[in-house]
Amino acid sequence: MLAVAVKLVPQLLCFAGIVLVLLRGFPGRRPVVATSVGCGFLLGAAATLVLYRSFPAAASLAVIRDVVGAAFLFLWGVSVTALYRSTGRAASQPAAPRFLDGPIAAGSGALLAGFTAAAICASRLPGAEAGQLPALLLVMVAAAVLLFAALALEKVLPASFTASPASLTVAVVALLLFSSSSIIRLDLFAPLTMKVMKFTHDFVHQFFESMLIPDHLFIRSYLWGYIGLLFGKEVGFWGGLVIWFTPALLILLAVSLEPLPLVSHIRQGAQRRKLLAGAIRNRRLRLVLPLIATLILGAAIYRSRFPSVEYWDPKPLRVTATASGEIVIPRKGEIDLEDGKLHKYLFKQGGQEVRFFVLMTPAGKLTVDLDACAICKPDGYGQAEGTVICYYCKTLIPLETVGKPGGCNPVPVNFSEKPDGVHLDSVALVNLWSSTVQSTTRVKEGGK
To answer: How far apart, in whole angstroms, are the C-alpha atoms of residue 152 and residue 157?
Structure first.
C-alpha cells in the first residue's frame, strides 16, 4: 500500500491544487465547491472501477483520455473568449459574469474537475484493469484528507489573490494534463505532436507532388533540397508546442489587456493615482495563476518527453533463411512467442539488414511486423504498459492495434503460422523493408 501511495503522489497533489484553485476562483461558493469536488472525486473513482470491470483496459483508457482532451479543447474556447472580452466588445453582456459566479457554474465545474482527477488517479493504480477496490478506497481517503488540507490552506491566502474564470480554467486543465502526463496511455502531448507531424508531412507531400513538375512557372524542382526540415520529427514537436501553450498565452494576454477603471470623474489626483495603482497591482496578481499554469504545462511536456518508465526493447536475435528462402521462428524454446512480449529479430541478406519482431497481441493472435512504420524513420519500437512506442516520434500504439496497417503502426509482414512456429518469406521480407525504409528516409534526410 505504501508503494501505491508514493506512486500516486503527483496525481493526488494535482487534485489538491485543483481544489485550492477552485476555492479561490469561487470565494463566495466555498461550501458548494468543496462538496461538489469531493462528490465528483467519489463518483469518478466509482465510475472508473465500473469502466475497467466492464470494458477492456484500452477502451477504458481511451474514454478517460478523451475526457482530458475535451477539457483541453474547452480551455481553447475559454481562452479565445477571454481575449475577445478583454477588448471591451462584450461589455454589454453582463449576464455571463453573473452566471459564471453563480452556484450552478461553481458546482458543475468542481464536479467535473473532481470526476476527471479521480479517473486519472484510478488509472495510475497498479492493476487498474482489474479495478482493485481496496486501492481505490485508499485513494479516496487520501483525497479526502487533501481536500480538508486545501480548505485550511485557502483560508490563509491573501484576499487579493483571486482567480478569474479564464485563469481558473487554465490552472485546472494544466493540473489535469500534468496529472495524466505520467501515464503514457493518457498522455496527450505525444499524440498531439504525432498528428501535427503527420498533417505537415501529408500536406507538404501532396502540395509539392502536384506543384513540382518540370519547368513550373513559379516553383522549381530544386526546392526539394530545402524542405527536408518539414519532414523531420521536430516539426511535430514545435507545432505541438504552439497548440499546447497558445491557450495559456492568450489568457495571459487577455489579463494584460484588461482596461483600467475610469478615473476622469475623480478630482483629487492622489485618489486617482491610488485607484489606478491598486487596479494595476490587482491585474498583476491575476497574472500569477496563468503563469503558474504555463509552467505546469511545460512540466507536463517534460514528463511526456521523458516518461519514468522502462521500455522492453530486446536485442534483435540473428536469424537465417533455409535453402528455399524461408525463415522459421520456433513458437517455443529459448524464447516463448506467446508470452505477450515483443521479440525482435535481425535478418541479413547481402548488404541488407532487416529488423522485425513477433508479438502475441492481447487478443491471443501472433503478429509479425517490421521494426519500422510507413511514416517515421526506422528507429524501432519499445514496449511498455500495454503499448508499443515509436522511438522516433514517441507515439504510443496500443497492443490491440499492432498488426494493423496505417499511421505510426509497425508495418505488418505476411506470414504463415504453423504448429512449429512462424514462417516468413525472406525475399518478401527484404523487399518490404527496402521499400518502407526508402519511402521514409527519402525526404527526411534533407532532399530528393
So the answer is: 10
